[in-house]
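Dear support,

Our group has been running a series of protein-ligand predictions, and this particular one with 6-diazenyl-5-OXO-L-norleucine is the one our PI (initials K.S.) wants archived with full inputs and outputs. We had some confusion internally about which version of the output was final, so please treat the block below as the authoritative record. The input we submitted was:
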Amino acid sequence: MPRPLRLVPSVLVLPVSLLVAALPSAFAGSAPVRASVGLVISQSDLASAAGFEVIRAGGNAIDAAVATAFALAVTHPTAGNIGGGGFLVYRPSGGEPVAYDFRETAPAGSHPEMWLRDGRYDREAHHQGHRAVGVPGSVAGLHLAWREHGSQPWAALVAPAIRLAREGFEVSHALARSLAGQIPHFRRYPASLAQFTKDGAPYTPGDVLRQPDLARTLERIAAEGPAGFYAGETARLLEQEMLAHGGLVTRADLAAYAAKRRPVVRGTYRGYDVYSMSPPSSGGIALIQMLNTLEGWDLRAHGSGSARNVHLIAETMRRAFADRARHLGDPDFLPALPVARLTSKAYAAELRRTIDPERASVSSPTTLPWTGEALETTHLSVVDARRNAVALTTTLEGGYGSRIVVPGAGFLLNNEMGDFNAGPGLTDADGLIGTAPNLAAPGKRMLSSMSPTILAKDGRLFMVTGSPGGRTIINTVLLTILNVVDFGMNAQEAVDAGRFHHQWLPDRINVERFGLSPDTWQALEARGHRLHEVASQGVAEVIVLNPKTGELEGGLDRRAADGGAAGR
Ligand code: DON
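Confirmed final output from the archive:
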């Protein structure tokens, strides 16, 4: 039998001038992807193409983001989702930015001590299995953003995903490898094994992956909107799976779920306006706090990657993550969140005074980091012809979330409950957290680090950025901004540059392999830092509107083996 061609859904008849750049060979050096009509960047070339096709047909950035996000739920199952949640920051051209919160919520049966067994913390139940599943938010959130700002029919935006699920798409090397690695986990859940293996055998590159149950669920969503997910057949199937296995999410939880419009968190950095995600993500507040702190130093004069700058940036990260642990959680449960103080220039000046340019400070174990978060989330950036912009980060939490596919409904459920703190008072030196702001409670949203962010200057769009990576997200986004604003890198250079991360505790700087020169590493150790090498950090997708040429310039992160920019 001839090998199947790479399947592209029939709507995606791409004009010759359309650029669909697939990783990793499409770029020379660090040249960004260039486009003028519009640009979509995501971790799946098929999903980006689905999104750009919407722009080509006259849709706007929200329409394209919705189409891309649904397509990611099919082609990038590790993090693209309808069974998870996320955040979207939207800046209409010249208008007021707004954020959409579609974070999962804790089901009604949740309580702060739900992961204690005989008084002992059960880490496995906190992060895996049916009790780790939060009430999904993605369908409600995408629909709310579309209802308020979309211009194309809803069903048309879900259609490419339906086609990809029904007709299938060719499995890439990266997806084949990723799915094969999950088989031991999928074996616990027959519907997961059926959906992502060939009767238990791994998919190989070039195989066509079809997901007919998912196609049917997407069809219900296309026809009925959120009711196609939160009620009727989909809700019945989800509740049935929960009831059969001790999970907590009920039809009543699904019916009660509401996505929320939130004010963006705002700041300024060296003359740029910064708009990012508000709580229940910690991302925007921590990002703006760090930018405010760093604004007090001339980073450019010392150069990207200099020991002095890495030191100052790491000390700044350390402080922002301590504040994150101390203060942040679901704003609907914490009416007195100190957002204004944490994002003020005055507070940043106070923090700067505590930083010794020559010496690392020491993290105190009286405030500790969150428990380990997995590294599987995904970000997409979109700019359309009118320069409306969307930054959207979405997650199932771990790779493939709970790994539970809802039987008959074909979608993966999140394990986002693991982002709540472990239990009251369960703070320990290994990183467990028991502080109050982020303890589980019915209907509460677990604290996130997702940081979809947009920058503008003098009323004009400048930059769209975001990344996966658990707590590293905030620092990855910070570094992309510093790389462009302070160090003058283009979008691709800003994405390619080596990354590092400090999160208060453990008290060390994680540095990407080849991220710093050996003498910089030594100079940081001489200042008292402990450094630790990591393979890679984040997968940033960046778009910069070049103020001189008016062109869109995209930076696609090659740290992920899959991904694509689609634009013209
Ligand atoms: O919401 C959060 O911050 C985490 N659940 C995100 C997890 C994540 O980024 C994993 N990514 N690569």
